[in-house]
Amino acid sequence: MAAAAFGLLSLLAACTAVSGAPSFPTAAPEAVGISIEQLSQVDEFIERMQRDHKVAGAVTLIARRGKLVSTKAYGFADLESKRAMRPDDIFQLQSMTKPIATVAALQLLERGQLQLSDPVSKFLPAFANMSVAVERKDAPGGFELVPVERPITILDLMTHRAGFIGLPPRDSPAARLRREAVKALPANQEFTLKEYVTHLAASPLEMQPGAAFRYGPATIVLGRVIEVITGKRLDVALSEQIFVPLGMADTFFTVPEVKRSRVVSTYALDPVRGLVRTPLDPMAPKFLSAGGNLFGTAADFLRFSQMLLNGGALDGARILSRKSVELMTTSQVDSIPLPFLPGQSFGLGVAIRKADDKAWLGSPGTYGWSGGYNTYFRIDPQKQMIFALFTQLAFSPVDLELQHGFHDAAVLTSID
Length: 416
Known about the structure:
With 416 residues, the chain is of the alpha+beta class. It has helices at residues 3-14, 36-51, 97-110, 154-158, 173-182, 193-201, 218-230, 234-246, 298-309, 322-328, 401-411, and strands at 57-64, 67-78, 83-84, 91-92, 131-135, 143-147, 266-270, 274-278, 295-296, 313-314, 317-318, 344-346, 351-353, 367-370, 376-380, 385-390.
């Protein structure tokens, strides 16, 4: 395809209808330093993944200097019905909920309603007097409970250092006790956020607060803190504090009935059977998890990302101060101990590319996160660039071809 024709198509794709979201400024790729030829490599990579039956479909977006240069839909939103993917389709964001909840908590910090050093028990008394299950072979059950050396803090929740069980997994006494305790929870997440967090507080910690990064339920607990401070359910608090001011009309915990036909089906990649359909998350959940059950669109997440890249504001709406965005994107944990995030440190709710990273292309300081169905976003402050991938393919920590391939192709679109 000729470069001029490709640029026109790219711009037309960027201007396709985006249901519910305010219009976002667009530009021809060359006008903001994006290579038309390299944009075609993004297309070719996603189309090859879809052609090889490694993904059912996807939506991608690339923006630079505050202008959207490409948003495209590929393949199918539903394989069985052969419904084509659309740019305004709705995805399960899963763990990409976490940066949003972190922003909501930082807003409360700016208002003086919490401090990073506050004990979580100040807001959730069930977390007072926590204990740690320490392995001791000569003790009954092979462990003993010891008191925490200090309380869990809000900063511990934001940096996954609260001491909860999580990733990387360990066959620890705390993990075994928690597995047994979870059996008492109602099936199909038929419990509220308050009920879940209270139940979690009754289980001993795996390690002392502040000791190590363990990717687990910390952000879920942060969501309950937001509820207690605001006096509102998490869905209402996030809507009022973030979604409405930013014009994110298609991001929610409960998908309105009239929009459910736009929800993309989810799949897992089986080595023998190929793409296998998996159950959707509940579209009207009782359990509102700040750790992972928002639904949303690529266009909405672009608005959230651009707000961060702008230093906390978008289209006249100030969501965070510039200092809070700097805090969020400053390393708090030097190295994330997860094999699928080498070369990354952790800030508040986001991974940050380190200067010595050899695994990922891009500028040092590029930050973002991903979700359990291979939704993925990165923000590069140095190049003033946002790129994001939205699929509904179950994430595998040992198969990073989709995320790595998209990431590298997108990074290389920048020509200055």
